[in-house]
Write a structure and sequence with these properties.
This protein is of the alpha+beta class and about 280 residues long. It contains nine helices and nine strands. The radius of gyration is 18 Å and the shape is globular.
Length: about 280
């Protein structure tokens, strides 16, 4: 695989097994390398392959024109998320570069990861991802954007699906698919009607988002790895807190349209650049 550059994840100090993670990753230099529907479909294809090959449990996703959102569960299996990201992002980059006779990095060398509590916090994160292209002004409703988990969440596929519906039901605290969709649509409708669809920094600048108990437990586990952390109250809500690392330097994004400032923040992790297969070690 000469003349190809593949990005693979490096282990980072905020990672803990057994958590639900919201991952975001932007194209190299904020370029709109995902602007063509065809390449977005290929990203979705490799996400589906990661579910089949690696057992990746996906709760929601969205592919925009220059970055991706992904909510996944780490069930403790060895390197499942890492191998999945190597497959999805490595193969997408290779196919794009081959198709356009392009060389060089496709993805930025840093991605953002936030640990998410279950129930109300997961609900908020799922809807936040659904509203990404509404915030960008590209669509007026999430159903108008095809390359996302919005459609499959509401219409489960019998074969070759991506969304882990049983886990999504469980973590949202709902007992049936109809109950889950009713709750999701109600929350979504409230935000669309009120116009409260703007960017929320907690999803892009936090190490973790959840209840006080969730964050205290997370922080205790994380403390063995070192690093100062600070639990901050949001809008006076005792059950809606974020865990942030004070020592990290903010990295502001100046992009426009559907990527502006959505990925700026402090909880970013390095990726390694290496030649060869996306299945390689790391």
């Amino acid at each position: 695989m000469k003349n190809r550059e593949v990005l693979i994840p490096r282990a980072h100090r905020h990672y803990l097994p057994g958590y639900t993670w919201h991952l975001t990753h932007r194209c190299h230099n904020k370029e709109f390398l995902l602007r063509e529907p065809g390449i977005r479909l290929r990203w979705v294809h490799w996400l589906r392959e990661a579910r089949k090959r690696e057992g990746l449990k996906v709760l929601n996703y969205a592919v925009t024109r220059n970055h991706i959102h992904l909510i996944v569960i780490d069930d403790g299996s060895s390197r499942c998320i890492q191998r999945s990201m190597q497959l999805i992002e490595g193969r997408t980059a290779q196919e794009y570069n081959d198709a356009f006779s392009r060389r060089g990095a496709f993805w930025e060398d840093r991605y953002h990861a936030t640990a998410i509590d279950s129930r109300r916090h997961l609900l908020q994160c799922v809807i936040y991802i659904d509203l990404n292209m509404v915030r960008a002004g590209v669509v007026t409703h999430p159903r108008e954007w095809l390359h996302c988990g919005f459609h499959e969440i509401r219409n489960p596929k019998k074969r070759n699906g991506i969304i882990a519906h049983p886990k999504l039901l469980e973590l949202l605290g709902t007992s049936s698919h109809d109950e889950m969709i009713k709750m999701l649509d109600s929350h979504l409708s409230d935000l669309l009607v009120s116009g409260h669809c703007s960017r929320e920094s907690k999803w892009t600048e936090a190490v973790a988002v959840g209840s006080k108990h969730f964050l205290q437990t997370y922080k205790e586990k994380l403390s063995r790895r070192g690093g100062r952390k600070n639990i901050r109250w949001l809008a006076g809500e005792s059950e809606n807190l974020i865990l942030r690392e004070e020592s990290m330097v903010y990295e502001s994004s100046s992009g426009t349209t559907d990527g502006r400032d959505y990925l700026s923040g402090e909880n970013k992790y390095s990726w390694l650049e290496c030649g060869g297969s996306p299945f390689g070690g790391g």
